[in-house]
Write a structure and sequence with these properties.
There is one protein chain. This protein has 322 residues and is of the alpha/beta class. The chain has 12 helices and 8 strands. It has a single domain (11-316), classed as 3-Layer(aba) Sandwich (Rossmann fold). The protein has an 8-stranded mixed beta sheet, sandwiched between helices. Strand 4 (103-108), helix 6 (126-141) and strand 5 form a beta-alpha-beta unit. It is globular and about 50 Å long. 50% of the residues are buried.
């Protein structure tokens, strides 16, 4: 099953013939791009989707087609969540816990990329605070709602290759700020969080995984300069050409969201639990890459001791023990 799909598979390819009626899924970041497509695909196959968004009005507009395509008892409901505010995160989590209904899957999809230097409402560096710490608190507060047999799916990135986490200076208090290094730290944290969550919850048959969706043109790149992306792709293509490889191909949004739904409902739990996935496959651990867009995950992102240390540091930063 893990070898059936690949880089060009779409959400509909992955879920063909899959009946998700009766499944309940939480998806963060359902106001644009991958989050909207993930919600659409799941609801179209019968799942009850709870989508979070910082801007509910924007999410309502973005998900008109999602509601038009629900089938087999599927549905979409939206709830407010600002991952850059722990007050908002805790309020959202408390409401879900009070509601009491379990989730089969939580897909931590929302995020920001390459933001200017800044801080969340709670004083954390924006990317680490939003991409990692916000999800860390949300998921841990609702962890008991994830039913046996359920999964946590963290949308990380190949951007984790830019940097390991820095547990001594997570907020760039002493380190010169680089937006891509900060993004890399946050995405490595997403993977390490999945590793440790999987270790802590697998005994009750709840597994966790992380993934790279691929290169997709979405709102995630809104903080990049207009020509910055073109320059980056030109550099990648020059390296690919030097290696005798074809030019870089962007994924469509349905192709980008495919690995999320594959990891959530199609891949065997033991295959993806505690691992990192891309292109609807489990990735190999590698330090050396043939090209900048070759598949692979850095060893530091799956290191179990590193994952435990990040968990401890994250608890210290947010002021909660889980």
């Amino acid at each position: 099953m893990t070898g059936t799909f690949g880089a060009t598979s779409t959400t509909d390819d992955v879920l063909q013939g899959v009946n998700l009626k009766g499944k309940r899924v939480l998806v963060t970041g359902v106001s644009a791009g991958l989050g909207v497509e993930t919600a659409r695909a799941l609801a179209a196959h019968g799942a009850e989707v709870i989508g979070t968004a910082r801007d509910l009005a924007k999410a309502q507009r973005a998900t008109v087609d999602v509601r038009a395509q629900v089938a087999n008892g599927g549905s979409l409901a939206l709830v407010e969540l600002d991952l850059a505010s722990l007050k908002s995160v805790r309020a959202c989590a408390d409401a879900l816990v009070a509601d009491g209904r379990p989730f089969d899957v939580v897909i931590a999809n929302a995020g920001v990329m390459r933001t200017p230097f800044g801080h969340t409402e709670d004083g954390f560096e924006t990317q680490f605070g939003t991409n990692h710490l916000g999800h860390f608190v949300l998921v841990n507060r609702i962890a008991a709602l994830i039913a046996p047999g359920g999964r946590l799916v963290n949308v990380a990135s190949s951007g984790h290759r830019y940097s390991d986490v820095d547990l001594d200076d997570p907020n760039f208090a002493r380190t010169p700020y680089d937006p891509m290094v900060a993004y890399g730290r946050s995405k490595t944290a997403n993977i390490l969080f999945a590793v440790e969550f999987d270790r802590r919850h697998r005994a009750r048959d709840v597994r966790a995984t992380a993934l790279h969706p691929g290169g997709i043109k979405t709102e995630l790149g809104r903080h990049m300069q207009p020509d910055e992306l073109d320059q980056l792709v030109a550099q990648i293509n020059a390296q690919l050409a030097a290696n005798g490889q074809p030019p870089y191909q962007w994924k469509t949004i349905p192709q980008g969201a495919a690995t999320s739904v594959w990891a959530a409902f199609v891949a065997p739990a033991d295959a993806v639990g505690g691992h990192y996935c891309e292109n609807c496959q489990v990735s190999q651990v590698t330090d050396g890459l043939i090209s900048p867009v070759s598949p692979g995950v850095r060893p530091y992102a799956l290191n179990p001791d590193h994952a435990k240390a990040l968990w401890t540091k994250s608890e210290e930063m947010v002021g909660e023990r889980f």
